[in-house]
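Translate sequence into structure tokens.
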Amino acid sequence: VELVESGGGLVQPGGSLRLSCAGSGITSSIYTMTWYRQAPGKQRELVASVGSGGRINYADSVKGRFTISRDNAKNMVYLQMNILKPDDTAVYYCNLDGWGRSYWGQGTQVTVSS
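Result follows.
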């Protein structure tokens, strides 16, 4: 399984970005996809997750601003990020957890700054 994130970049506060995570080598839709982020000097934290049954969870800090979605047919997961704040600056990683294993992408940088 390989995961590749894209869509990061520099955006002004209040702006939006849409992150994508493309999966390959996936043969079953029974897995959970999660977006994590890690800011400099901080621990990696969960941002949002979506299970195979569609159950969604968000970190309190992003509720109402971020939306996670997945397309099983395309093996894709997305993170729509709106009303971005400087505190959202981090490297964002997608994670696939399933079949007793966990896989990570290489991460994509999101910088929120004026």
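Note: The radius of gyration is 13 Å.
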